[in-house]
Specification:
The chain has seven helices and eleven strands. It is α+β, with helices and mostly antiparallel strands and about 260 residues long.
């Protein structure tokens, strides 16, 4: 059940400018900077332009004076290079390199919520509500894509309270082990094909039964028996849930005021 929309970066959907009016170009540059998590000054420097060239253009809304075709071409190409380096092919290659130690601080897009009972056709928020964070991730514990999701209800208990930003890495049963105590983002479909994403923890009973445990009142899910070598292999035929991502890190609110924060629910 690939959750492709959570893994789509909004810049990849932006495409090149199609409105070549001055205000259309201003909008494209502004959106590109937001999606790439950079300032117009950074984009200008990447395009070998004076920052004032881009900043003055953006501040002159309504003016019919535009950028030259050559200048705009340089800006678009520079934005594409930044996207490839930060989120695209170059970033994937960097994360996939086998390194024994250390960590990286990738830029992660927070684009949706984890909410019990919220079955949706599209899981990500409107582009204007998405935002970026950076957190250190140990090298090679999980490869790309990395996704950011906000806990929208009590399903994470005291461990991941409401407002927690979860950072998770793509799970592949053929490559990754499951250990008792691990937390995962799991998905299930309703009868209409809409998808719910929630948090679950893997626990093993004294009798060797493997469970996906919810900290809320949502029923636990039986995954089968632990293997002869203590390996945990989910029985997809026996479970309504598919393990999609492993939780790697979390930004947990510590102030009570967070209980009143709403993240585009």
């Amino acid at each position: 059940m690939p959750l492709i929309d959570l893994e789509e970066h909004p810049f990849s959907q932006l495409g090149p400018p199609i409105d070549f009016s001055p205000d259309g170009l201003r909008l494209w540059i502004s959106e590109a900077c937001k999606f790439l998590n950079i300032s117009p000054t950074e984009l200008a420097r990447a395009a070998n332009l004076a920052p004032s060239t881009v900043n003055k253009f953006l501040l002159s809304a309504g003016s019919k004076k535009s950028l030259s075709a050559r200048t705009m071409d340089g800006i678009v190409k520079s934005a594409m290079r930044i996207y490839i380096d930060k989120f695209g092919e170059n970033r994937r290659k960097l994360l996939e390199q086998k390194q024994p130690g250390g960590s990286q601080t990738p830029t992660i897009l927070v684009s949706g919520t984890l909410e019990l009972g919220a079955f949706k056709e599209r899981l990500n928020w409107p582009v204007q509500d998405q935002f970026h964070i950076q957190v250190p991730i140990p090298n090679q514990i999980y490869g790309p894509p990395l996704v950011g999701l906000v806990v929208a209800d009590e399903q994470g208990g005291d461990i991941f309270p409401v407002g927690t930003v979860i950072v998770a890495g793509k799970f592949d049963a053929a490559l990754h082990d499951i250990r008792a105590g691990d937390w995962f983002v799991v998905a299930r479909k309703d009868d209409h094909g809409a998808i719910e994403t929630t948090l679950r923890q893997v626990l093993v009973s004294p009798g060797g039964d493997v469970w996906l445990i919810s900290m809320s009142k949502s029923p636990d899910e039986y995954l089968g028996k632990i293997g002869a070598r203590d390996e945990i292999k989910p029985n997809r035929a026996a479970s309504r849930y598919i393990i999609e991502y492993k939780v790697l890190s979390a930004i947990v609110p510590v102030a009570s005021e967070f209980s009143r924060v709403k993240f585009s629910l």
